[in-house]
Amino acid sequence: MSDPLFKKVMVANRGEIACRIMRTLEEMGIASVAIHHVTESKARHVQRADEAAEIHGETPVSAYLDIDQIVDCARRFGVDAVHPGYGFLSENAKFAAAVTKAGMTFIGPDAETIALMGDKISARNFAEENGVAVAPSVMPTDNLDDFVEKAKSIGFPLLIKAAAGGGGKGMNIVREAAALAEAARIASSEAQRYFGDGRVYAETFVERPRHIEVQVLGDGVGNAIHLFERECSVQRRFQKIIEEAPAANLPSGLRDEICASATRLAAAANYKNAGTVEYILGADGRFFFLEMNTRLQVEHPVTEMITGMDIVRAQIDIAAGMGLPLSQSEVRASGHAIECRICAENPEQDFLPETGVVRYLSVPEAEWLRFENALAHGQKITADFDPMLAKLVACGPDREAAIERSIHALGELALLGVKTNIDYLACLLDHAAFRNAQLHTGFISEHRTELAASELDETERAQVLAAAFLGFREFRDLVVGTPEPHAAIGGWRN
């Protein structure tokens, strides 16, 4: 192995994505530094790292968002580069600039590109200027009444969106003029609360659209390639729970057009590092630019599984000045991959987040399977962070094989101590409409009744509890185990 381009990298994140990045760092012979709030001092990403820095804040999230503190930690630990993962500060232009100013390399696009493409309004304007179609829209003004009148002029339904948002925050569908002003006010208030920026805009809402995104890599000097597309249409509350690559039933000509559009946009922006260009695809075959994520995506493993590439390694190499890992003609895709996001949530209660303690975890293993996680026995699942706990990713020679393998793996996956969506995901994958690739962003709402879990009767409940008691020592200990300090005494009785 040749000397690594970086000697030490800080992963400015936590959980499964921090562990994922550290895996590639280990393979490249690069030392890693983790950051953690005091509540996560024994977390798996901390244990996996070569070194760890404790960060402080009134809440765990505020600590992971403290730019000055994180940059100071990186400087004190002598790191060469910082990888932001996804979420938290990954698309924060000020963070990228602060890392660079401190003499370290930011493993991602430069601050100027993040500012350009991270703001939905400037990004869509840039896309339109470069020949990428955008949906008819109305930009924000200081006058809400003026904004409402202009929005009415493009017709309904409309989608109100936060200019600086993401993850479904600050978004509202409006189907009639009477509801527009209040929807805009609510969206603006929510955007201000989550992103510190209350600007919203309105665009034509495409009914039953598909959500297609393209993975791109750029070298920062006008060269870019794509790693094909992903289907991300299955969502709840505008947030993805199942992603797959490639997109099903996408005509090859349309696939080429969408991927070429994404590459053209990345090249025009002199984009550097990994990014994702997202589109809304209508039933008529028209597609519109949605946004660009200037970071590593949660769903990057499905692209890795069909292309054989390590996207994190490509990020590191590009950041170190090595350029693009392949030419476009060298990029190949084979088979099909599906990612299921395992979340601590209750599908029967509109996917409300759940809390608990990990009492037992059993993960299936196969050469066609990845289980990205940072879970550990006894770990507390709190409401401090996003409810996603892990990602189960399965691949196969075709889509049907990938579906069957995913369902089988979900059936073998056991996680006790906190309610999750594991069974719901298996039910969703087995739904006839999903198998037939009848996908759109309203899929879950449309099939809510069929996807609802049936209640266990008393006999089934007794059978499940008996199986858990016999099969899982941790569960048995919870039921009949002797608590401390009495357990230390042994079998002695008074």
Give a quick rundown of the structure:
The protein contains 20 helices and 23 strands.
Describe the structure.
The protein has 494 residues and is α+β, with helices and mostly antiparallel strands. The chain folds into 4 domains: 8-107, 3-Layer(aba) Sandwich (Rossmann fold); 136-204, Dna Ligase, domain 1 (2-Layer Sandwich), CATH 3.30.1490.20; 210-451, D-amino Acid Aminotransferase, Chain A, domain 1, CATH 3.30.470; 457-494, no CATH class. The protein has 20 helices and 23 strands. Strand 2, helix 2 (44-48) and strand 3 (51-55) form a beta-alpha-beta unit.
Share of residues in helices: 25-40%
Number of domains: 4
According to DSSP, the number of beta strands is: 23
Average per-residue pLDDT, rounded, comes to 91
CATH architecture of the largest domain: 2-Layer Sandwich
How many DSSP helices? 20
Relative strand content: 15-25%
Apparent shape: globular
The CATH class of the largest domain turns out to be: Alpha Beta
Strand order, biggest sheet? 14-13-10-11-12-15-22-20
Helix/sheet category: alpha+beta
